[in-house]
Automatic annotation (TrEMBL):
A Pfam family reported for this protein in Swiss-Prot or TrEMBL: Wzy_C
Protein name in UniProt: O-antigen ligase-like membrane protein
Membrane topology, as annotated: Multi-pass membrane protein
UniProt source species: Pseudacidovorax intermedius
TM regions (residue ranges): 37-55, 62-80, 100-121, 133-152, 158-176, 183-203, 293-314, 326-346, 352-370
Length: 384
């Protein structure tokens, strides 16, 4: 706990160092960039919430019902994606940085909900839907449709690749049954896609039709191969953004140690609509460029702490249901950490808070279980 407090102190001191210099200079743009550090407050928020439920022996009830509700309502909301434009038209609007942003009609978290659903189904099984919110069979059908819709039509290399890596890691850790169940789901998905193609049915996704060839070429584009030109362009574009950020970081010894700060855009790329791409689509590179080596090391420690806490909890929980649920969250946090290499995930508050909140909650739960078991050991020694 002491190390965590010290690391957090270093991170916020670095933030204050840049804030005093750059807030007057860059104004709202600097304030927006500061959010990537401010979002870390969700970690202690998770600790506080978990500590409250742990002290009152309500942890299992809380984490199970919260997870089920998030998965259920997230899946149902994902099914409204075909009506996104209509939802945005009638949605309440928030205003920030001279932009009007509809509250409804965006689906940034939908891929994460879909990934978590696959993880929960592979580890916990259909038991995740036992919460008395909706009928179990109805929810299972809706959820699977939502996950298939988001993942197959979204065709995101980052999220799909992370899911494969996650289950590969589980297999290395000895969870062969869970990895085998996922393999069965994957084979089923391939058969369904092949069946749809054999019927001559064309389903258009974000970058192409839903087919095995599309996904093969999508992943091949990472290495500059295949026929997915948009994917290859995206990879080349990221290489340019990363080079631009590294050039800023390496301009002098101060920026290398303390970073260039918050306010300047890290790339010189501008979209066709005239909006600058501020982040290089690599959260680790953003942390290095904005906060320097000191901040990057401190931040990676927080990320690793969150992931390891979920894995430790999976090993410490005594009830199999919650042991497997913790394993699902371990996969989710690992997925997010991997996606951070190719997307500005930790610079996006609606995504970052998921990681930090659960990371803090699992960290608190692990500490509670350790204290509880230490007390029980001492009591047993006294009785003997």
């Amino acid at each position: 706990m002491q190390w965590t407090v010290k690391i957090a102190t270093v991170m916020f001191l670095l933030l204050l160092l840049h804030m005093t210099r750059q807030l007057p200079l860059y104004g709202a743009e600097a304030a927006r960039d500061f959010l990537s550090v401010v979002d870390l407050l969700y970690f202690p928020a998770g600790i506080i919430v978990a500590s409250y439920f742990c002290r009152r022996s309500r942890w299992e009830n809380f984490i199970f019902k919260f997870s089920a509700a998030w998965l259920i309502y997230g899946s149902i909301y994902s099914l409204t994606m075909p009506f996104s434009e209509k939802l945005q038209a009638i949605s309440p609007v928030g205003v920030g940085l001279a932009q009007s942003i509809p509250i409804f009609g965006f689906y940034l978290t939908a891929p994460l909900v879909s990934a978590f659903g696959i993880y929960a189904l592979s580890t916990v099984g259909t038991g995740i839907f036992k919460a008395k919110i909706v009928d179990k069979k109805v929810m299972l059908t809706l959820a699977v449709c939502a996950w298939a819709y988001v993942l197959l039509l979204g065709q995101g290399r980052g999220i799909l690749g992370s899911i494969f890596i996650g289950f590969f890691v589980l297999a290395l850790l000895g969870h062969y049954r869970v990895a085998g169940r996922f393999t069965l789901f994957l084979l089923t998905a391939v058969v369904v896609v092949l069946f749809i193609s054999s019927l001559g049915i064309t389903v258009e996704g974000r970058t192409g039709t839903v087919s095995v060839d599309t996904f093969v070429n999508r992943f091949a584009s990472i290495f500059g191969s295949g026929t997915d030109e948009a994917g290859i362009d995206g990879v080349n574009q990221r290489a340019e953004w990363w080079a631009s950020a590294l050039k800023l970081w390496s301009q002098d010894s101060f920026s290398m140690i303390f970073g260039v700060g918050y306010g300047p855009a890290l790339t010189d790329f501008v979209t066709p609509l005239g909006t600058p791409v501020r982040e290089p689509h690599n959260s680790y590179l953003s942390a290095l460029t904005r906060g320097g080596v000191l901040y990057l090391c401190a931040w990676i420690y927080m990320v690793a702490l969150s992931i390891s806490a979920a894995l430790k909890l999976a090993r410490m929980e005594e009830i199999s249901l919650f042991k497997n649920l913790a394993l699902s969250y371990f996969l989710l946090l690992l997925t997010m950490a991997i996606i951070g290499f190719v997307q500005p995930l930790f610079e996006t508050p609606s995504l970052a808070f998921i990681f930090y909140f659960f990371g803090g909650a699992f960290y608190a739960r692990v500490r509670h279980l350790r204290k509880e078991r230490a007390i029980n050991r001492r009591l047993r020694l006294l009785v003997v």
